[in-house]
Design a protein that fits this description.
Elements lengths: L3 E2 L6 E2 L1 H8 L1 E2 L2 E2 L5 H10 L16 H6 L17 H16 L10 E9 L2 E8 L7 E8 L6 E6 L23 H11 L4 H7 L3 E5 L35 H24 L4 H17 L4 E11 L1 H12 L3 E7 L5 H8 L18 H6 L6 E6 L7 H17 L6 E6 L7 H15 L1
Parallel strand pairs: 8-9, 8-10, 10-11, 11-12, 12-13
Antiparallel strand pairs: 1-2, 3-4, 5-6, 6-7, 7-9
Length: about 425
């Protein structure tokens, strides 16, 4: 078990203490009251199983799980459709309606703030202004001296309970990294900045701050005062933002604020996955409109919260020729009965389970090349349901006549995207994008 660094005295703390202090594990925030249980569970492995009599919502679990049709109404596993094109047209229309992505306009003007090189890659620091909120900041990487058009990957950063950070979680632009990002990359990526590593293999890679993270985070100075519970804004400040204690305080507050953001988005007629999708599609526009990018060979990938974004972007935007979802694949039944409490409010689009099981959102892209990578001791999910999700995707791609276009992998260990998983993912990109 790896150790984290305590900002007060720089002494190692256990993973369990880190989970408690950050209110997160493996890229997704945890709801209040579940932290200790999840810490214990992660050390013991997957202890909660789908049961006919017990669930995380008590005796209501079997009833709630039974509300879903199996397969759901718009699943390709039904026998309703004569061909995949007619299925996809109907399923995509319904998914778009439920996810309700807001219309945020065309590609904005992109500002290049700085250019430089580091460790084998050319780096551009970019920004663009959406119609709402503060500017989106992004990092673009490509091999030094690369000429012509290259395949490209949209790198989708994780959640990690670290909403102060975004693009820095999977990139490296200097030897002097913030210590929390050094720890984060060591913990979840085996010390690698995976966006840099795939760029070195001959790709243009864009990593942008997602909605409510880093440059797109909620700033205290923009908030009306909240006086109740852990979301209270009294005494909170945006001053000295890079200090570790301030970042920890912000991350704790931001985790507690998620239900407020989600309820406000629901009230406005959209969903958090819908906002993610809209902003990630803008980033995909930025990437694809570059002269050094081969628009016929675009990919996306991400761990955990980045895997969640891959599910929706890869499933809903078929400009993505190859999609790799890491550490975020299970079934709605797993969430209903076992694991909704381990996942952020960013995961859910109400009513979607009536029409598609969770893996089938990503399966909307069939027959386009798709990969899922999972860890068999990942405490965010139940292993049997991860395997069932994998089988669902296998069946979807088989029905679509593209069995060899889907690959699922299971690896030993807890929630991560380690060096071996990265190599397998990069090889999959090379197979389909080069």
């Amino acid at each position: 078990m790896k150790n984290k660094i305590n900002s007060n005295n720089h002494q190692p703390t256990s993973r369990r203490e880190f989970i408690k202090s950050s209110a997160a594990i493996g890229g997704l925030s945890i709801l209040p009251g579940s932290i200790t249980a999840l810490a214990n569970q992660n050390e013991m492995g997957n202890t909660m199983k789908i049961s006919e009599s017990k669930s995380i919502i008590g005796a209501y679990g079997p009833w709630a799980n039974g509300l879903m049709e199996n397969p759901p109404k718009l699943s390709l596993r039904n026998d309703r459709w004569k061909d995949t094109d007619s299925w996809r047209k109907e399923a995509m229309a319904k998914a778009n309606d439920i996810i309700s992505s807001p219309d945020i306009g065309d590609t904005p003007e992109v500002t290049i703030k700085k250019k430089y090189t580091y460790d084998g890659v050319e780096i551009e620091e970019l920004s663009w202004q959406l119609p709402y909120g503060r500017k989106t900041e992004a990092i673009l990487l490509k091999p030094i001296g690369a000429e012509g058009q290259l395949p490209a990957v949209l790198g989708l950063h994780d959640h990690g309970g670290l909403k102060y950070f975004g693009k820095r979680k999977i990139t490296r632009t200097t030897d002097q990294m913030h210590p929390m990002m050094s720890d984060h990359q060591e913990e979840y990526y085996e010390g690698n900045a995976w966006a840099n590593e795939i760029a070195k293999r001959g790709y243009v890679v864009l990593v942008h701050d997602a909605f409510a993270f880093a440059s797109r985070r909620v700033f205290f100075k923009d908030m009306t005062e909240i006086k109740w519970g852990h979301c209270a804004t009294t005494g909170m400040s945006d001053d000295n933002p890079e200090e570790i204690d301030n970042i920890k305080a912000y991350n704790t507050w931001a985790g507690e604020h998620e239900h407020i953001m989600a309820k406000s988005l629901f009230s406005s007629g959209t969903t958090w996955p819908g906002v993610f999708l809209a902003e990630d599609q803008i980033a995909l526009n930025v990437l694809s409109e570059r002269k050094d990018v081969d628009t016929e060979n675009l990919g996306c990938a991400g761990l955990s919260g980045g895997g969640l974004r891959t599910v929706f972007l890869g499933g809903m935007d078929h400009r993505i020729k190859c999609a790799i979802c890491v550490g975020l694949m299970s079934t709605w039944s797993d969430f209903i009965l076992n694991k909704s409490y381990t996942h952020t409010w960013m995961t859910y689009a109400s009513l979607l389970p009536k029409y598609l099981d969770f893996p089938e959102i990503l399966g909307l892209r069939a027959p386009l090349p798709t990969m899922t990578l999972n860890n068999d001791q990942d405490g965010l999910f139940t292993l049997s349901e991860m395997k069932r999700a994998d089988k669902i995707l296998q069946e979807v791609f088989e029905i679509a006549g593209a069995q060899d276009h889907y690959k699922g992998g299971f690896y030993p260990g807890i929630h991560k995207f380690d060096a071996q998983m990265q190599r397998d993912a990069f090889n999959w990109f090379d197979k389909w994008l080069k």
